[in-house]
Amino acid sequence: MTSETKSNLARLGLMIAVYLILAARIPSYYSQPGIAALLDSAVLAGIIAIGVGLTMIAGEMDLSVGSMAAFAGILSIQLFPYGMVPALVIVVLFCGLLGALQGYCIYKLNISSMVFTIGTLIALRGLTLVVSNEKTVLIPFENIAETDFLSAKFFVFSIPSATLLVLVLLVDFFSRRTLWGREIFAIGGGRGEARAAGVSIRRPIVVAFSISAALAGLAGSLLSFRTGSASPLGFEAVLLEAVTACLIGGIALAGGRGSILGVLIGLFTIRFLVSGIAALGAPFWMQSLATGALLIFVIIAEAAIGYVTRRRRMARALTA
Predict the structure, then answer these.
(1) How far apart are CA 159 and CA 33, in angstroms?
(2) Over pLDDT 70: what percentage of the chain?
(3) What span, in angstroms and rounded, lies between the C-alpha atoms of 115 and 117?
(4) d(Cα 127, Cα 131) in Å, to the nearest integer?
(5) CATH fold of 3-283, please?
(6) Res. 4: pLDDT tops 80
(7) Where along the chain do its domains lie?
(8) What phi and psi values does residue 62 have, to the nearest 5 degrees?
(9) Is the pLDDT score of 99 beyond 90?
């Protein structure tokens, strides 16, 4: 069993513990509608966290995803008269192209992705306000019934929540089993070593940012279709939850370590905690406090385990 598998199992145990503790106080957690609601609540941050996680594995960070999702939401609603599927495909492809351009600029300019994507975060938000004329955009009332199937439940899954789980499996397979995916891990683990081994630096950065932007566009479009509206100021808080899910899920800020399955575990750990606290009637600030405390606990636990592991390796080396 690899160290990463052990790490994911430990995180899975934490997620189950959080769920069981809260489920003991909240009977609806065991019910079919309760589980369906938990799955649906994870869709937006989950789809975006997959893309953000890829950029973090590459040793970068995409801070523009909230603005990208809002931009995609406005565009998708405006293109809705041409059909929901064509609108979704056009918006996701366009966002992916913007992400690829963003990744190429980061590579070519050799600039920090955090600095660059703060700029695109602001620019995209401004562009979204211009495109929407600073107003919330609505699906015409006579067409709103066309989106009802997005809220329909198949056992505990809706189309958006099923999409999230499928994307986790697909992107995890891509990142681990394909050449381009392994390149993302390689450059995150060490740019100099990757370059010396002949690994392209440009391609994995462009691919990671393209996927991140496309997934942000998909999330923004799906949620806007489901609610029937899109606000140019929407999705401002989603970045924080997505990054927190990645960190709790084991993605290293330094890059080169983690998995998309781990991101899913981190995401549901947060969702179980936040939804449970809300269901218990606690004030809103308690949700933020509990999430922050959970993240700090995971970071400290990881540091302690890493310290003990290094000490044991050093002791074995000295006695060998």
Answers:
(1) 15
(2) 99
(3) 6
(4) 6
(5) ABC transporter involved in vitamin B12 uptake, BtuC (1.10.3470)
(6) no
(7) 3-283
(8) -105, 105
(9) yes
Chain length of the chain: 320
Could you tell me the pTM of the whole model?
Answer: 0.91
Locate 177 and state its tokens. 């089993």
What does DSSP say about strands 229-230 and 137-138: parallel, antiparallel, or unpaired? antiparallel
* The one-letter amino acid at 117: T
For residue 318, name the pLDDT band (cuts at 50, 70, 90): confident
Q: Answer whether 113's CB lies under 8 Å from 212's CB.
A: no
The 3-state DSSP class for residue 219 equals helix
Closest-CA residue to 247 (of 295, 302, 292, 184): 295
Angle at 168 between CA 165 and CA 171, to 5 degrees: 145
pLDDT tens sequence across 118-140: 999 999 999 999 999 999 999 98
CB distance 139 to 77 below 8 Å:
yes
CA distance 207 to 210: 5
The answer to whether 288 and 237 have CB atoms below 8 angstroms apart is no
Query: What pLDDT band is residue 193 in, cutting at 50, 70 and 90?
Result: confident
